[in-house]
Amino acid sequence: MDPRMAAELMKRVQGKPSQKKLSLIIGDFVKAKLPYFDVCISNTPYQISSPLIFRLLSHRPLPRICILMFQHEFALRLVAKPNTALWSRLSANVQLYAKVDYLMHVGKNNFRPAPKVESSVVRVIPRDPPPPVRFEEFDGLGRIVFSRRNKTVHGNFMAKGVVEMLERNWRTWCSETNQIIEDDVNMKAKVEKILDDTGNLENRAAKMDVDDLLKLLSAFHDAGIHFA
Fold first, then answer.
1. In the CATH hierarchy, which fold is given to the domain comprising 135-222?
2. pTM of the predicted protein model
3. For S-adenosyl-L-methionine, which residues are the binding ones (predicted)?
4. Binding site for S-adenosyl-L-methionine: what residues are annotated?
5. Which of 49, 91, 128, 173 is the most core-located residue (most Cβ within 10 A)?
């Protein structure tokens, strides 16, 4: 937050017709109560890049379009595709809820003083209506699948603590939905069967697109296994 910049902006429009069209809010964008808007243009503070974009995608009603400048590497991760080096949990999470296009590179010499990093501008168009998928569930699956993106999905699910966490979630779901809880449940076998049935036993996160992740999430949900 920079109250000096806010004061300078108000000074420039004072007494002009544009003053009536400007509503200036000084605060933390990620935490502030936002008014209605359908367009967002931001030279983003790079340390809040991820919280900012997910705040925009969770805002209701959804904005029509967002033109955002980020650190170059972050922007490339937003638009990355499966089977590329930068495809990640961030890429999948954002592309589930929005169409993201790379617009332009902005060199550091365009700023005074020049920062240490390069920048890029992207266009984010939220999918409206958004897909009927809880972000916490999709992100929870992504945390496991992308924990080691070049390892097999099976290997990531067999990592220490993952099966135990899924069993706790499954038992919670059974209790909340009045399902019978098996005394001798073999959660490891349940997980492996789901991965096998969906063709993901030997698959790798680096090759899985958003549709692949959604199908896998749906298969786990059908078995009462949740990630949040």
1. Helicase, Ruva Protein; domain 3 (1.10.8)
2. 0.91
3. 1, 28, 43
4. 1, 28, 43
5. 91
